[in-house]
């Protein structure tokens, strides 16, 4: 009897416990979920105002001196010491001697030929006095002005046929041109500076035996440089001489002003580019310096320029309408490394100034025009 009572109590307790547990589960199931606040991104925007956008072509290259001379020897001789050392970095004024070779032996042969010419003319003077009295004075004056230590003067002008036969028959003319030829070669033992500049390369030193055809060094004018750039053939008709060009170094810390000095008349068949030469002057510039040039190619009317990252692969850009993102089609006119020029964007359209991660059409945003508002 007692056992039945205990089992009955336990059964009733189990039923009551199950009832309250079920009620607890039902109450928790119907409890409303917490509301997560919706985050609205703040985006930087701009209002479109179409205008004329200049297209700037970026190109780069190395500077080379506009005036440069590679020095070669046309004669053979020992390099003699001069007033200035023949070393890289040495400056020379126009007309100064860059290199002087020992020409003592050759100089003696030139003097011998000049002496023979003088003697040949002197030998015909008695005949000229007797047979050509009218031309005798000019030949006598020529002899009087003949100086072996100076360049051979030009022969007197031959005025008549008889005089011509007489002078030519005595070998005077051929002897004169032989002397002038030797004098021209003697001048090649001295190389003078064609302009004021600096020696950038020296391949020989004083006392060296220089051979004919040997390269001696390089000489440049450090005041004017040129940079060769290659641009697309599509700009061949707008790239003109005299156009202003802004150049900068790789660190973007210095800028220089140059002009387009020459434009190649042919297009490279391999790369389909046209070569232009930019002239620039500045004391800080050195040959071989690497610069970047910005050339003004043309102007696009009724266009805007934006960050290239804002243009979608579908040739569309994001706009803001009623606090929602939307996309509109655009027409790219020119691409550069960082920007793109667009046409067919209506005035007054509100567009993004900076890309928005995870952006999509219909996304709710808050427009701002300055970074502080973000």
Automatic annotation (TrEMBL):
Q: Which Pfam families match?
A: BSH_RND (PF25917)
For the Multidrug resistance protein MdtA-like barrel-sandwich hybrid domain, which residue ranges apply?
Answer: 69-216
What's the name of the protein? Answer: HlyD family efflux transporter periplasmic adaptor subunit
Q: Which InterPro entries does the annotation name?
A: MdtA-like_BSH (IPR058625)
**What top-level branch of life does the organism fall under?**
Bacteria
């Amino acid at each position: 009897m007692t056992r039945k009572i205990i089992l009955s109590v336990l059964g009733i307790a189990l039923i009551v416990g199950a009832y309250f547990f079920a009620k607890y589960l039902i109450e928790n199931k119907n409890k409303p979920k917490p509301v997560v606040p919706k985050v609205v991104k703040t985006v930087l925007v701009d209002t479109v105002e179409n205008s004329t956008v200049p297209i700037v072509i970026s190109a780069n290259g190395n500077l080379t001196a506009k005036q440069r001379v590679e020095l070669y020897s046309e004669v053979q001789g020992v390099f003699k010491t001069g007033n200035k050392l023949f070393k890289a970095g040495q400056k020379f004024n126009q007309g100064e001697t860059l290199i002087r070779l020992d020409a003592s032996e050759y100089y003696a042969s030139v003097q011998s030929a000049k002496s023979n010419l003088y003697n040949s003319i002197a030998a015909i003077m008695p005949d000229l006095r007797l047979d050509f009295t009218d031309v005798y004075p000019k030949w006598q004056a020529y002899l009087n002005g003949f100086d072996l230590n100076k360049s051979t003067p030009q022969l007197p002008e031959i005025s008549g046929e008889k005089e011509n036969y007489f002078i030519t028959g005595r070998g005077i003319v051929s002897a004169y041109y032989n002397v002038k030829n030797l004098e021209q070669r003697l001048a090649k033992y001295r190389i003078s500076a064609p302009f004021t500049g600096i020696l950038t390369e020296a391949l020989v030193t004083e006392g060296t035996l220089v051979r004919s055809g040997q390269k001696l060094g390089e000489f440049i004018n450090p005041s004017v440089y040129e940079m060769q750039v290659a641009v697309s053939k599509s700009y061949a008709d707008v790239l003109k001489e005299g156009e202003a060009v802004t150049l900068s170094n790789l660190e973007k810390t210095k800028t220089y002003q140059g002009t387009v000095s020459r434009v190649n008349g042919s297009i490279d068949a391999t790369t389909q580019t046209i070569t232009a030469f930019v002239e620039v002057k500045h004391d800080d510039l050195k040959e071989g310096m690497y610069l970047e040039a910005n050339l003004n190619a043309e102007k696009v009317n009724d266009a805007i320029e934006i960050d290239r990252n804002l243009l979608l692969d579908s040739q569309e850009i994001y706009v803001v309408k009623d606090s929602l993102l939307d996309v509109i089609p655009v027409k790219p006119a020119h691409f550069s490394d960082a920007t793109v020029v667009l046409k067919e964007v209506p005035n007054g359209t509100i567009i993004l100034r900076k890309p928005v991660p995870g952006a999509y059409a219909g996304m709710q945003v808050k427009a701002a025009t300055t970074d502080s508002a973000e």
